[in-house]
Amino acid sequence: MLRQRFLTRALAASSDTGRKSGFVADGYDRLVSAVESDARLIIEAKFADEWNASGLIRRWKLHRKMNAEIAMLVAEMMPDVSPDALF
Predict the structure, then answer these.
(1) How confident is the model at residue 22, as a pLDDT?
(2) Which of 29, 28, 48 is closest to 40 using CA atoms?
(3) What is the full DSSP assignment across 58-85?
(4) How far is the C-alpha of 87 from the C-alpha of 81, rounded, in Å?
(5) Element (H, E) at 44
(6) CA 31/CA 56 separation, integer angstroms
């Protein structure tokens, strides 16, 4: 038990040594949100003219259609990374 605690302290990055751990908090979530924002820009540009010309009900339907296409594009653009991977 003492040895395990000693190794953890020795290998852990501390603020006084200036070392950084290299891990990113919520790395997988950040990756997904970055890919999703890129896909959202592409799809919104594709439907911009139709969005501007439509009324309230048509925009509601168009919003659902855009979200479905965004989800498909995110699935295509997403790199093959496991959600359990460390970043």
Answers:
(1) 73
(2) 48
(3) HHHHHHHHHHHHHHHHHHHHS-S--TT-
(4) 10
(5) helix 27-46
(6) 33
Q: Which residues touch 87 (CB under 8 Å, ≥6 apart)?
A: 23, 24, 27, 28, 30, 31
**Do residues 72 and 43 touch, judged by C-beta distance below 8 A?**
no
> Which residue did the predictor score with more confidence, 62 or 7?
62
Is residue 25 a contact partner of residue 87, using CB atoms and an 8 Å limit? no
Please state the pTM of the whole predicted model: 0.67
**Token pair for 45:** 């540009």
Q: What is the pLDDT of residues 6-50, one digit of tens each?
A: 444 444 444 555 667 677 788 888 888 999 999 999 999 999 999
Tokens of 33: 């949100």
Number of neighbours of residue 43 by Cβ within 10 angstroms: 20
Q: Tokens standing for 26?
A: 């919520």
